Structure formats: C-alpha cells, structure tokens
Amino acid sequence: MNGIVILISGRGSNMQAMVEAGLPVAAVISNRADAAGLGYAAGRGIATAIVPHRDYATREAFDAALAQVIDGFRPELVALAGFMRILTDGFVLRYEGRLLNIHPSLLPAFPGLDTHAKAINAGVKLHGCTVHFVTPQLDHGPIVIQAAVPVLPHDDEASLAARVLMQEHRIYPQAARWFLEEKLVIASGVVRVKGDHPQQLYAP
Ligand code: GRF
C-alpha cells in the first residue's frame, strides 16, 4: 500500500495543500490534460497520469479505465480534489471506505455546483466546507470534518469562495492524515476520530 492517489480536473490547490502538508502522494490523475495542477505535481516529482474522459463512450468505460490506472499505484486512499466527473456506483463501491471528497459547503446544505452563490442567495450567515467519504449519492456520505466561515454582508461569490478555500486547505490534509493513521471510525454513517480530535473548526 502506497499513500494517496489524488484525482483533479483543474487548479489542484487542494492537491497542492496535501503535498505541502507532507502527505505521501503516490500519484495525481486528471481527466483533463490541461489541468493546471498536473504541472505542479510533476514539478514536485510526483507521478502524474491523464485519463481523458472524452476517449470513452460511456461512464462505465471511463471509470473502468480510471480504476485501472489508480490501482496501478496501489493507494491506501483515493482523494477527489476538484474532480469534475460524476462517478458510477460501481466505481464508488470499489473504493468504498477509502474514497474521500472535499465539497465547498457545509453539507448537507448546498450539494452540487455553485455552492457559494447558493449560500449568498439563501442568506445563510455561516458557510464552509466538508470532507466526506464518497457514497453513490452525490455530495453525501459520512462527514469527516467541517470548517465554517462567516458570510459577510459585502461578500460576493469570489470573496466567499476565497475564504472557504483557505479552510479547505486546512481540513483536507487533516482528514487524509487521520485516514492514513487509521484514526477514522465509521459507525451508522457517522465518522469519529480516535483520540477525540476536533472534527470542526470555525475561522472568523
Ligand atoms: C474546491 O473548491 C473543492 O472544494 C471543489 O472544487 C474546488 C477545487 O479546487 N470540489 P482546487 O482544484 O483544489 O483548487
């Protein structure tokens, strides 16, 4: 077993945060050849791979090819970090219990896209991000850690996204580290961390 395989589609700032936290990243895989994060990973001497989704006629075929590349790295953990593909149930179940995602909202509020605009439009006063185990239902699954930030009166989508992203970069490496240290216990869909580490933070 061999650390973390991180799946990205673009910028890769969460992937970068994991690398900079000193986590063992075995490989970074993207469905897009133009994902900016690939250059960063390669520059750090990390293996990279591209599995272009357009090369496959079905989601099943793409997910099978992706799984084959992932499994070649024999990871303990697979981390979705801005990976913009809906995964099939078969893929999700193959990695059950060792597939994490970061979502830019306080789940179960605001699943899906455009979470920061949804938060502003809903008038919520707290927003944030969630690291969760992936289950077949999109943006659901047992919650490992959440960070909350205030929504301020002058916020727009960009300012709120930036405030949330800073916290993403704190909680995703933390969650991955707990996983690799075998500290995460899931019971009845609820995650606890051995040793009573706080699973929430508030960044005013
Ligand atoms: C992050 O906001 C993450 O929560 C969401 O997609 C974005 C990816 O950003 N799933 P980056 O590629 O990690 O910079």
Descriptive labels:
single chain, 204 residues, alpha/beta, eight-stranded mixed β-sheet, 10 strands, 33% helix, globular, binds 5-O-phosphono-beta-D-ribofuranosylamine
Would you kindly provide a written description of the structure presented here, covering whatever features stand out?
The protein is an alpha/beta fold and 204 residues long. It is built from six helices and ten strands. The strands form two sheets. An eight-stranded mixed beta sheet has the order 3-2-1-4-5-6-7-10, covered by helices on one side. Helix 1 (13-20) crosses helix 6. Bound molecules: 5-O-phosphono-beta-D-ribofuranosylamine (GRF). Residues 8, 10-14, 81-82, 102-104, 129, 165, 168 line the site of 5-O-phosphono-beta-D-ribofuranosylamine.
Shape: globular
Radius of gyration: 16 Å
Largest sheet composition: 8 strands, mixed
Beta content: 25-35%
Unreliable segments of 5+ consecutive residues: none
Output the helix-strand order.
EHEHEHEHEHEEHEEE
User: SS-based structural class?
Assistant: alpha/beta
Count of helical stretches? 6
Distance between the termini: 39 Å
Helix content: 25-40%
Count every beta strand, where a strand is a DSSP E run of 2 or more residues: 10
List the ligand species.
Answer: 5-O-phosphono-beta-D-ribofuranosylamine
